[in-house]
């Protein structure tokens, strides 16, 4: 009996660590992604970029593993029965954000778009806003498990950053299409800008769902 | 002895109804919110219900005796049966009702049939407890709810640990609720049979000896346990899920408030203490656990803005509280007529 209790205690603590680790992975991913785009813009597909790209793959792989562990533990231990469905959905949403970071970074590696230097500043700004947006989403999501007031504060930041990133993306795309580049190149750059901005949109969707879950979470 | 057991069968039937109906109040919200499995909750509640009934079930029996000392076995059988049928009728229609009200209706039916005056002071005290019980339970629930909400807000405990704490709390409260139900409500079930009790003391090993009345209460408690396991899941659907869609933490607060109220109304020590400090006493009266639960749920619902409460269902339950004693009264009156004139049984000893 005593062992059962200790083991349940330990498993709950493990699950708590897994959830925290998943959030850490998102924050780590946002930083590595920013670094990766910066390196790409400076050096294109260099050895350093290859190295950072590998790091992104590892984060994505680790977070997949964490997601599966969280899902199975929640069901095996029959924990938080009333919110279990919401938490599974939340964990899947977080994983989708991480996957999208990985996809975009991998696309840079495969397609190697040629981005003229005049757009580098704006692209860096967009990437910084998107990364910030995802980071705040992770903090808000972490707060869902402990403190609902903090969740609301960070949700507002996510909405604000998503709006800013939309504006930056729209400005950049307009400038690209107004340039003298050939259409194929314009389309390729436009496609990249859209995909980067999509990360912030996904983070915003995640927060929308999270705020609904929070209503149910209130006692 | 055989005759006694035959007549006691209606009391045991009422005991079964108590288990079937009131178990939902002890752990209905815990099972409804999937925090405890039905079998686990039922087993814990049964053990403590038996302990409560045997250890302090007799405290509230005196009040019922003051209301109307049903003094023949056949009359006790009829009053019990009428009350049990009234409860069963309401249960069949999916309404969680009050056994206390049913038995009071049945006893008054006996008084009226025998042209015996009902002790209005006792009746007033019982009726007052029916109003006080949900009000006190509601107030207690609101107080606990605000405390817990503030504690959670300031401590920022992880949701997983909250879940574990609530689960442990629910197990403890289910035990407390079972004990309280046994202590407060078992007099409803077998109280009318005390005067004609024939059981002799029962030795449990060399540790403890149950007196005759305790044996009677033990039988009633066992009948209630059978009711819990065989029929309580239907009533749980009403209390646990339907009246207010509540979180497990709120569910726990509801059970805790209900159990505390039942204990408040069972304790003679508390009654003496309140009198000693010149406060109005809470009499040892069998109150309704259903009323306590509904009071707690509505109290918390109101603090949350009242939007989550399904008022139509609350009204349905409250209408059941009015209908139950009336139905029990009518059934008791008619059955006593048949018992006396068709079955030629003595139903009153002057």
Structure, described:
The complex is a heterodimer of chains A (219) and B (350). Chain A is mainly alpha-helical and 219 residues long. Chain A has a single domain, classed as Phosphate transport system protein phou homolog 2, domain 2 (Methane Monooxygenase Hydroxylase, Chain G, domain 1, Up-down Bundle). Chain A is built from 6 helices and no strands. Chain A is elongated. The mean pLDDT of chain A is 92. Chain B is an all-alpha fold and 350 residues long. Chain B has one domain (2-341). Helices cover 75% and strands 2% of the residues of chain B. Chain B is built from 12 helices and 2 strands. Chain B has helices spanning 2-32, 38-56, 61-67, 73-92, 99-113, 120-155, 159-190, 212-242, 248-264, 268-276, 289-303, 311-341; strands at residues 202-204, 208-210. Chain B has a two-stranded antiparallel ribbon. The longest helix of chain B is centred in the middle third of the chain and has 36 residues, at 120-155. The radius of gyration of chain B is 20 Å and the shape is globular. The two termini of chain B are 24 Å apart. The mean pLDDT of chain B is 86. Chain A binds chain B through residues 8-9, 12, 15-16, 19, 79-83, 144-147, 149, 216-219, and chain B through 33-35, 145, 148-149, 152-153, 156-161, 163-164, 247-250.
Topology record:
The complex is a heterodimer of chains A (219) and B (350).
Chain A: H1 2-43, H2 47-76, H3 84-111, H4 120-144, H5 148-178, H6 183-217
Helix pairs in contact in A: 1-2, 1-3, 1-4, 2-3, 3-6, 4-5, 4-6, 5-6
Chain B: H1 2-32, H2 38-56, H3 61-67, H4 73-92, H5 99-113, H6 120-155, H7 159-190, E1 202-204, E2 208-210, H8 212-242, H9 248-264, H10 268-276, H11 289-303, H12 311-341
Antiparallel strand pairs in B: 1-2
Helix pairs in contact in B: 1-2, 1-4, 1-7, 1-8, 1-9, 1-11, 2-7, 2-8, 3-6, 4-5, 4-12, 5-12, 6-9, 6-11, 7-8, 7-9, 9-11
């Amino acid at each position: 009996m005593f062992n059962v209790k200790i083991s349940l205690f330990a498993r709950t603590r493990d699950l708590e660590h897994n959830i925290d680790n998943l959030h850490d992975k998102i924050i780590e991913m946002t930083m590595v992604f920013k670094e990766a785009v910066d390196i790409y813009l400076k050096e294109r597909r260099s050895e350093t970029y290859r190295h950072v790209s590998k790091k992104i793959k590892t984060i994505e792989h680790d977070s997949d593993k964490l997601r599966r562990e969280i899902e199975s533990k929640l069901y095996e231990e029959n924990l938080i029965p009333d919110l279990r469905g919401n938490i599974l959905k939340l964990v899947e949403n977080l994983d989708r954000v991480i996957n999208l970071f990985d996809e975009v970074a991998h696309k840079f590696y495969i397609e190697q778009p040629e981005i003229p230097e005049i757009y580098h500043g704006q692209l860096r700004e967009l990437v910084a806003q998107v990364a910030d947006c995802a980071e705040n989403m992770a903090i808000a999501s972490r707060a869902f498990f402990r403190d609902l007031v903090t969740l609301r504060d960070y949700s507002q930041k996510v909405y604000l950053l998503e709006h800013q990133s939309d504006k930056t993306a729209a400005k950049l795309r307009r400038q690209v299409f107004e340039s003298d580049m050939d259409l194929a190149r314009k389309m390729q750059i436009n496609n990249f800008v859209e995909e980067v901005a999509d990360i912030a949109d996904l983070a915003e969707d995640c927060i929308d769902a999270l705020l609904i879950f929070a209503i149910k979470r209130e006692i | 002895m055989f005759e006694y057991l035959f007549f006691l069968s209606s009391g045991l039937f009422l005991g079964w109804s108590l288990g079937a109906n009131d178990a939902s109040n002890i752990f209905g919200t815990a099972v409804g919110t999937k925090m405890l499995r039905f079998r686990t909750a039922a087993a814990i509640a049964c053990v403590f219900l038996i302990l409560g009934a045997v250890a302090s079930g007799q405290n509230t029996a005196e009040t019922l005796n003051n209301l109307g000392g049903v003094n023949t076995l056949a009359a006790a059988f009829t009053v019990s049966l009428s009350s049990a049928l009234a409860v069963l009728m309401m249960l069949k229609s999916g309404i969680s009702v009050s056994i206390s009200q049913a038995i009071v209706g049945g006893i008054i039916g006996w008084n009226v049939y025998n042209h015996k005056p009902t002790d209005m002071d006792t009746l007033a005290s019982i009726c007052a407890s029916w109003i006080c019980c949900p009000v006190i339970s509601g107030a207690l629930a609101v107080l606990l709810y605000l405390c817990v909400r503030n504690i959670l807000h300031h401590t920022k405990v992880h949701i997983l640990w909250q879940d574990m704490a609530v689960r442990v709390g629910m197990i403890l409260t289910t035990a407390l609720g079972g004990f309280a139900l046994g202590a407060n409500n078992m007099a409803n079930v077998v109280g009318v049979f005390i005067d004609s009790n024939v059981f002799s003391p029962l030795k449990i090993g060399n540790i403890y000896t149950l007196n005759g009345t305790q044996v009677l209460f033990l039988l009633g408690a066992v009948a209630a346990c059978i009711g819990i396991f065989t029929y309580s899941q239907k009533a749980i659907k009403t209390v646990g899920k339907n009246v207010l869609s509540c979180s497990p933490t709120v569910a726990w607060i509801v059970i805790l408030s209900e159990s505390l109220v039942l204990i408040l109304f069972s304790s003679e020590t508390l009654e003496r203490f309140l009198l000693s400090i010149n406060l109005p006493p809470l009499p040892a009266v069998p109150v309704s656990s259903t009323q306590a639960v509904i009071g707690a749920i509505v109290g918390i619902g109101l603090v949350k803005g009242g939007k989550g409460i399904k008022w139509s269902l609350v009204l349905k339950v409250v209408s059941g509280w009015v209908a139950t004693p009336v139905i029990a009264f009518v059934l008791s009156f008619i059955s006593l007529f048949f018992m006396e004139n068709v079955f030629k049984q003595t139903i009153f000893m002057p």
